[in-house]
Design a protein that fits this description.
By secondary structure, the chain is an alpha/beta fold. Helices cover about 40% and strands about 20% of the residues. The longest helix has 22 residues, at about 210-230.
Length: about 290
């Protein structure tokens, strides 16, 4: 997976994207990557990615709007990305489809996305474009939920990588991805697993013996998993919801990156597992989902 030779950064010129540019520049320099800045004009969504239709409502035709966006794209991140090979691409269509399609067609290794676009309603959500990309793309996606904290040199010092694991078939692959990420930064890896309890959908009374049973079973599965992965990493096993457990563990161990799996089964939920959006939204640091 590493290094990322080609990074795709979809941008809607929002504050989140502007705040994420220094981090993007760091990643590109860290891996010697070529960066593609992609803006997608979506004239059908007045509150969404690009907020194009609200502009059209106020009397700007599509041709003029396209020229405006081309100008913005030409200047976006110019100073921060100086010295980095950058392509600037503008497309028209449904944003998530254009992003995933472009990534697949042009050999992209990593999609880098802030978690919010324009629109006051999106501030309450993960963001539909990011959600769709996480769901539809098989590529690694690096998300930055709290990009305001990234505009400093601190993001260049990844010392601890936290890997959130389940006991599903691709868990070994996720652990190896976390180890590979840590190797790039000479960082340490720590594992975390959340035990879902009665408050999180099991419907069984949370007695102490029952909690001990769940904990012991999780420990046995974690031991077997590490044996299969050929690792001996420290692990935190906690009782609670996945999002909060990952968040609190990341804060406690001062992780600078969280690595999670998105899976590849195209079942009812597709690639996006139920907990992915919760982890991305609540994580105090960037999340690499593979």
């Amino acid at each position: 997976m590493f290094p990322f030779h080609k990074i795709l950064f979809p941008t809607d010129f929002s504050c989140r994207c502007i705040e994420g540019i220094p981090y993007l520049a760091h990643l590109a320099r860290q891996f010697g990557s070529e960066v593609t800045l992609l803006h997608v004009l979506d004239a059908s969504d007045p509150f969404g990615y690009g907020a194009a239709s609200s502009t059209i409502v106020y009397g700007v035709d599509a041709g003029t709007l396209r020229k405006q966006r081309e100008t913005e794209l030409a200047h976006f991140g110019k100073i921060a990305l100086e010295g980095i090979e950058v392509k600037r691409v503008l497309e028209m269509g449904e944003p998530a489809e254009c992003i995933t399609g472009y990534a697949e067609e042009h050999g992209i290794n990593l999609i880098f996305m802030p978690t919010h676009g324009h629109g006051k309603f999106r501030q309450l959500l993960l963001g539909s474009v990011t959600s769709k990309v996480l769901h539809d793309s098989a590529l690694p996606v690096w998300t930055t939920a709290h990009s305001k904290t990234l505009a400093s040199d601190s993001f260049g010092e990844i010392r601890t990588v936290l890997c959130a694991i389940s006991f599903l078939p691709d868990a070994v692959r996720v652990i190896h991805a976390a180890c590979e990420a840590a190797e790039q930064y000479a960082a340490q890896v720590r594992l975390v697993h959340a035990i879902a309890g009665p408050d999180f959908g099991m419907g069984i009374e949370a007695t102490a013996p029952f909690q001990r049973f769940l904990f012991n079973a999780a420990c046995e599965q974690a031991t077997a998993l590490q044996r299969e992965a050929e690792t001996q990493l420290p692990i935190d096993i906690q009782y609670g919801g996945v999002g909060p457990v990952v968040r609190e563990t990341a804060l406690a161990c001062r992780a600078q990156l969280v690595v999670i799996g998105r899976g590849h089964a195209r079942g009812l939920l597709g690639r996006l597992r139920t907990n992915v959006s919760n982890i991305v939204r609540e994580s105090p640091c960037p999340v690499l989902s593979v």
